[in-house]
């Protein structure tokens, strides 16, 4: 299974950015997918996740109301719409996938598949 993330880049605070991640290879049907991020010099942290059906979404508190995760099951692709970004959102963002939504989704070791990451830089 390969996860290819795209959409990272530089943006000013208050702006928007959309990340995409497509799963390919020996992929199971409609996996749960999500995003983690690792800010410079800090530990990796959970950002958001979406269930297999796309009906259930979970967010870390710091992005609630600003980020939206969605999923195109037909394309095995997950999106992260990032609005009103803040300098604190600067990080390498990693796409994850799993046959089922891990419980808890914020436990990184519970996710089976990881992408390489895409860098998001927010300037003030």
Describe the overall structure.
This protein has 124 residues and is mostly beta strands. 0% of the residues lie in helices and 49% in strands. The protein is built from no helices and 11 strands. Strands 2, 4, 5, 6, 9, 10 and 11 form a 7-stranded mixed sheet that branches. A hairpin with a 4-residue loop joins strand 7 (67-72) and strand 8 (77-82). The radius of gyration is 13 Å and the shape is globular. The termini are far apart. The relative contact order is 0.32.
List keywords for this structure.
124 residues, mainly beta, 7-stranded mixed beta sheet, 4-stranded antiparallel beta sheet, 11 strands, globular
Write a brief structural summary.
This protein is 0% helix and 49% strand.
The total count of strands amounts to 11
Structural class, from secondary structure content?
A: mainly beta
- Coarse morphology: globular
Helix content: under 10%
Number of helices: 0
Radius of gyration: 13 Å
């Amino acid at each position: 299974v390969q996860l290819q993330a795209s959409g990272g880049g530089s943006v000013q605070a208050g702006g928007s950015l959309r990340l995409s991640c497509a799963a390919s290879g020996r992929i199971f049907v409609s996996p749960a997918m999500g995003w983690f991020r690792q800010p410079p010099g800090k530990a990796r942290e959970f950002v958001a996740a979406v269930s297999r059906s796309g009906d259930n979404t979970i967010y870390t508190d710091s992005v609630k109301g600003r980020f939206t995760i969605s999923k195109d099951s037909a394309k095995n692709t997950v999106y992260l719409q990032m609005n009103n970004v803040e300098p604190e959102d600067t990080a390498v963002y990693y796409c994850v996938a799993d046959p089922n939504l891990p419980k808890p989704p914020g436990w990184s070791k519970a996710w089976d598949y990881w992408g390489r990451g895409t860098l998001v830089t927010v300037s003030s």
